[in-house]
Design a protein that fits this description.
Signal peptide: 1-28
Domain Peptidase S1: 42-266
Oligomer: single chain
Radius of gyration: 25 Å
Number of strands: 24
Strand order of the largest sheet: 10-11-12-15-14-13
Largest sheet: 6 strands, antiparallel, barrel
CATH architecture of the largest domain: Beta Barrel
Pfam families: P_proprotein, Trypsin
Number of domains: 2
CATH superfamily of the largest domain: Trypsin-like serine proteases
Domain P/Homo B: 273-389
GO molecular function, one term: serine-type endopeptidase activity
Number of helices: 4
Helix content: under 10%
Order of helices and strands: HHEEEEEEEEEEEHEEEEHEEEEEEEEE
Strand content: 25-35%
Distance between the termini: 35 Å
């Protein structure tokens, strides 16, 4: 956790002994502009724009986090007390200014705290399940290999902008440099127990001045992957003060725990499927006039967990009287989702994309488009349809 020397919060969440021994800190985020007119900075950072890091979450206990799924927030283990039912945490999403009235808020329903946290294995991570999903929330994928544990990282949070400072109203951002394990361990006696396989260091070793700080705990350290997309490589964990020379920030090495995080997410309600994955069927299926329903199937495989709450169903049906048609999506378990009712519309053809909340359905399996012509005199056929997860 990210706090300055001997912070009360660090003491409360279970790593007080380690931090107190070395004058440590648990990290947090920036503070509001001071009366002198100096713009506050995430200890060396700048203010982030609304929507710049849309997956960022502020947690009511004074920590940060990132949306892992539409209903799960990834944060630090030291930010929570234990695994189990928990309705005491409020998550704020969708804003950079915490006083922005457009903020989306959810209370927690359950917490999963890493069972290896506080052991020689390390593992300062936790998942917070929200009382209901934030439909369409932006998600931050996590690194599953150490390939991105290098270079320059981005950090963001609502913590203090100086050691011992107050929390920030505004989301702040900064860039921090990767520091190898051996250099980090030798930087100061504080780091002598650094767990090479579980922790990663970052900051300006020579000069200090740039760092996460108290209140940034649990927030993500992230960078662009090989495809240019944001990926989370670290979780703000702890450090010796804020932005001191020769005292970098310490972050949970996310890739080490990626499999454990995914397993916990599966138990809590499923991991996200790869965004934008599309399956389609382009085989024509004739629709009989005022006849029985016809079906067109799509076999989905290779995805993980449940379908998204924003499953896209793209339908292209050629028909001389679109109002004759009733269209349903049938999930692999037989559940039916109505896409279109019959109507008096004489407009020809149906060429549109429907959005279905299919988050209760397993993604993999055979999905079916069911189409029925319920009036006489007009005919047509299913030309092509697609599912985009």
């Amino acid at each position: 956790m990210r706090n300055t020397a001997k912070k009360a919060f660090a003491l409360a969440v279970g790593i007080a002994a380690t931090l107190a021994a070395f004058g440590g800190q648990a990290h947090s985020a920036p503070m509001p502009p001071d009366p002198g007119g100096v713009t506050p900075q995430v200890v060396g950072g700048t203010q982030a724009a609304k929507g710049e890091f849309p997956w960022m979450v502020r947690l009511s206990m004074g920590c940060g986090g990132a949306m892992y799924t539409e209903q799960l927030v990834l944060t630090a283990a030291h930010c929570v007390n234990s695994t189990g039912n928990n309705t005491s945490i409020t998550a704020t999403y969708g804003v950079a200014d915490l006083q922005d009235t457009s903020a989306i808020k959810r209370t927690s329903s359950y917490v999963h705290r890493s069972p290896t946290y506080g052991t020689s294995t390390g593992g300062d991570w936790a998942l917070i399940k929200l009382s209901s999903p934030i439909t369409g929330a932006s998600l931050l994928p996590i690194a599953t290999t150490n390939a991105y544990n290098n270079g320059v990282f981005d950090v963001a949070g609502w913590g203090a902008t100086r050691e011992g400072g107050s929390q920030s109203r505004y989301l702040m951002k900064a860039k921090v440099d990767f520091i190898d394990d051996t250099t980090c361990k030798n930087a100061d006696p504080y780091y002598r127990d650094l767990i090479f396989s579980a922790e990663i260091c970052a900051g300006d070793l020579a000069n200090g001045g740039v760092d996460t700080c108290q209140g940034d705990s649990g927030g993500p350290m992230f960078r662009r992957d090989s495809a240019g997309q944001w990926i989370q490589v670290g979780i703000v964990s702890h450090g010796n003060g804020c932005a001191r020379p020769s005292n970098p920030g310490v972050y949970t090495e996310v890739s080490t725990f990626a499999a454990a995080i995914k397993a916990a997410a599966d138990n809590l309600g499923g991991t996200p499927t790869p965004p934008g994955k599309t399956f389609e069927n382009g085989t024509d299926v004739s629709i009989p006039d005022a006849g029985a329903a016809v079906y067109s199937n799509i076999a989905v495989s290779g995805l993980t967990g449940n379908a998204p709450s924003t499953l896209k169903v793209t339908v292209d049906i050629k028909h001389s009287w679109s109002g004759d048609l009733v269209i349903d999506l049938v999930a692999p378990d037989g559940s039916t989702y109505r896409l279109k009712n019959s109507s008096s519309s004489s407009t020809p053809n149906v060429n549109t994309t429907y959005t279905v909340n299919a988050s209760s359905e397993l993604a993999n399996g055979t999905w079916r488009l069911k189409v029925q012509d319920v009036y006489s005199q007009d005919t047509g056929y299913i030309d092509i349809w697609k599912l985009t997860f």
